[in-house]
Amino acid sequence: MDYIRARREIRHALVIGDPTPVDSVHNIWASAGQAATIGIFLLLSGAFLYIGHAILLPILAAAVVALTLAPFVKTVNAYGISPWISGILILVVALGTLGLIVTAVAGPVSEWIGRAPEIGAIIKQKLSVLDEPLAALRELQSSLFGGNGTLNVNEPTSNVVLPVVVFLTPAAGELLLFFATLYFFLVGQIDLRRHAVSMFANHDSKLRFLKIMRDIERNLAGYLTVVTIVNVVLGTIVAVGAWLIGLPNPVIFGLLAALLNYVPYVGPAIMAIVLFGVGLVTFPSIGHAFIAPLVLIALTTIEGHFVTPTIVGRRLTLNPLLVFLALAFWTWMWGPLGAFLAVPLSIIGLVIVNHLFPSDDVRLPD
Predict the structure, then answer these.
(1) Which of 52, 90, 125, 345 is most buried when burial is the number of CB atoms within 10 A of its CB?
(2) For the segment 204-252, what is each residue's pLDDT rounded down to a tens digit?
(3) DSSP label at 171?
(4) Residue 331 and residue 121: Cα distance in Å, rounded?
(5) How many C-beta atoms lie closer than 10 Å to residue 266's C-beta?
(6) Helices (H), 283-362
(7) Degrees to nearest 5, angle at CA 167 with 153 and 103
(8) Does the predicted model carry a pTM greater than 0.90?
């Protein structure tokens, strides 16, 4: 009976119109003006981030890393070790790690770049089974868009390699700005927080700010610590697996898998493509070349959907749609380094939103 009565009321409302008209047209225009102001602010902010990426990217990356390492700096400071000393120690470890990675990767990458024409010929021979489908696609492209539908495969190697190297390699000035900003953030974070707290007028606002900063530091440190441990284990498994199936330079593949796994979805996909390409060159058949990427996809799927969410808990588990949109936005905005920052920035935003808009305060309309 209640269902029938509700349907009658809805039908009656549709016939006679809304019995509660809008109070004032000015309220509608006021809401539209507020929405327009917010939209203009977001557009200007996006333009500012895009235009100023050369200076904003290293500064923001340094701030995220400093927030992640803040609990460590505070802990050693409690034992009488000055932030100046702990900051220098962190910089030495970071620069040493970066130097080891560059040294380990430089040799194999240079060798593969030197063999680029030979590798291209081998891959073309192995993928010859796709000649007919590709020819059909070229014919369809020619009929739809015009042109001869041919692809120039004889382009010099340097014309392909150099833009990629320039795109993936950060400028020396940006690296210098990153490490300098990181050091001063680590050293002066206590004073910066004290000055920031003094800008708030009342006690509740100051306390809320301190709670937000504390939760950001704990969540970033906890999440990235767990993810780093998981990535190290994943990289070790990939290196051992690459060695067992006969891929060259298995340590390099383990290192790349660990680094790329910091970028959800995109990183494992790139690594799978790399493993497939190397497998085509190394192994005699396409089926053999599929072994390594398929195993990697299985490992990263288990890690991303079961292992990491179970360890970090539901409190730090991000919505997959949120992660995907953040990756798309920050990659478009700042390139590969923006992809690495997408998840930490999402965690920071989620912590701030949870403090400013607690879930207990949400009330659905009656």
Answers:
(1) 90
(2) 888 888 888 888 888 888 888 888 888 999 999 999 988 888 888 888 8
(3) P
(4) 32
(5) 16
(6) 286-289, 291-302, 308-312, 320-356
(7) 100
(8) no
**Torsion-angle region of 137 (φ positive above 0: left; ψ -120 to 50: alpha; else: beta):** alpha
Helix, strand and coil percent figures for the chain, each rounded to 5? 85, 0, 15
Nearest C-alpha neighbor of 256 from the set 276, 241, 236? 236
The span from the CA of 71 to the CA of 190, in Å, is 11
Q: What tokens were used for 108?
A: 């194999």
Longest dimension (CA), the chain: 80
118-153 per-position pLDDT tens digit: 666 766 666 665 556 656 666 666 666 655 544 444
Which residues contact residue 361 at a Cβ distance below 8 angstroms, ignoring those fewer than 6 apart?
Answer: none
CB neighbours (10 Å) of residue 62? 20
